[in-house]
Structure formats: C-alpha cells, structure tokens
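User: Can you help me understand a structure? I only have the sequence.
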Amino acid sequence: MTMPFFCSGDRIADRRADYAAMLWDMGDKPAAIDLMADALALAPGWAPGWFRLGEMREEVGDLTGAAGAWTEALRLDPSDRMGASLKLCLIGAAQGIETAPAAFVETLFDQYADRFDMSLVEKLGYRVPDLIAGALSRLGARTFAHVVDLGCGTGLMGERLRGRASFLEGNDISRAMLRKAEAKRFYDRLDRVDLSVMEAGACRADLVVAADVLIYLGALDRIVSVVAGMVKPNGLFAFSVELHDGPEPMMLRSSRRFAHAPHHLRALLTRSGFELVFIEETELRRDRGEAVAGLILVARRTVSVGAVERLDDPHAVGPARPVAR
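Assistant: Let's start by predicting it. Here is the structure, written out as tokens:
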C-alpha cells in the first residue's frame, strides 16, 4: 500500500526527488537517499517528502533515520495523511496506536477511487462482498427492510445487497469513493461518515455490513457498540476481518492494516449484545502475490446484553450455535 507522492511546491526540490526515485529504481539506494535529503533541504516543510525518505531509510535498515524522517512528517502534518504514526509503530518507535488516522484512510481511498474496482477485483481477487452475501444466504437471511453498508466504498458490497434491501444506506469517509458509489445508483442514501467517531443514531437497521472496513479501525470496541445501537433486536451484523492467530486481540501488519483474533471478536460481540451465528476462515484477497487470510462473521443482535468473560480466553470454545467452518 503506497501513498501518492505529492509535489513539494519547489520545482528544483521536485526534480531532485524525481532523480532520487530514478536512482532508487536503478538500485543505487545510497545515492537516492542522499539526493532525497538534498531535496528536503530545499523544501523542509514537505511532509510527503519526509515520509518517502523514511521509507527509503527503512528499506536499507536505517530504522533510526527512518524514525526521524517519519517523526518530522508527522510534525509537519499532524492529521497524518501519510500514516507516519503507523510506520513508527511498526518499527517500535511509537506505541499505543489502535486505529489508522482518519486522514490517512481518507487520503488513501480518495487517491485509489478511480482504479479501485479494477485493482481490487481483477488484480487482487477481492472476494469479500460475495463471501458476505453467501454467508447471509447460508443463514437463510435473504431480504431486509433497512440495510446499512459501513465504509461502502465504490459500492461493491451494495451491488450484492441491492436486491435484498428495501432501503439501502451507505457511508464512507472518502468523497471520491462516494461519488463512484453514487454513479452506480445502488443506494437509496449515501453519507460521508468517519467510522472512528460516528454515532449510532436511531435503532433502524435489520442488517449492518462492514466489508473490508474494520481492518483500518484496529480497536473495535467503539464501532461494535455503535453498531449494536443501530441494529434492531434479531437484526444482523455481517463483517470481515483479517485473521490474527496469536493471543493478542489484534495486531498491526506491515500493510498498515489491522488483523484481529477470533477469541477477541467472540468476546467483544457477546459483551455488545450479539450472538455469533456464523464464522468462517477464508482467503479475502491477495496482496503482493500472497493470500490474505481472514474471517467472515455474522452476529445476531440479542434483546439483552450478556457478557461472557471467559470468551476472552484464546483457548475458549466457540459459541453454542452451529457455526460454519
């Protein structure tokens, strides 16, 4: 996952950065790093340039230098459009990062919108919308009065939901993605929403879907609580996550996406008043030629919230209801 390389505003600095990129591609990495540093001497307020310098230094093993560059990028751009805080976390130079910065997610998908469908489906074998739709069908859940598609993107999930929903509502943080979704005319309503701070609003939905969205949120306690407030009793919450098979609740991967552990998800859903009725491990997509393992989950909203603390145990048994494997 790479970020767009914004211009510095200084033509000479941009030219040196272009030469640095050329040298990097030719394999002369030390010269590329030196020239990139020269470009930043001309344009010291160029946050994306500092971010790129950090990437270069990281690749040659200079983690101290990378941390310095990313710290400067973050100082210059506190909203963190490049995701420098995530890179600092990955090399151990920052801690306590539990979600991707909203500005990073918005910038990433604004830049990705025009090629999103082709890249994700044709090149990366993206399967999550079909997998979620299939899970709902296997549960016999075929039609819904009101569906909310969290992080709807360009509408790939909405296309699968349109025939099932009397009213289909989508939201996303990216304006460019929302424009693409609007052009497809699958949704009855579209809103720009930052999921990291959204409120539940009225209890209105029979189904809430989050397809390949929670991987950017990290800590899921808040969003699951919000969804619990949106879903009517006996309504469903269907979502995907990347799979983490360690004892920790979640981990940040080098892709700057979060992966989540099944035992943590079970406990979290139970505490929030959901009953897990479907969980299946599967390949979600491919990334750099490697299969990305994940989970497709469907949970039913119960009338009362009953916490089952033992489910925080990574070795705890699964839910009592039959669950697809």
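Now, to help you interpret it: The domain at 114-312 is CATH 3.40.50.150 (Rossmann fold). The two ends are 30 Å apart (CA to CA). Let me know which part you'd like to focus on.
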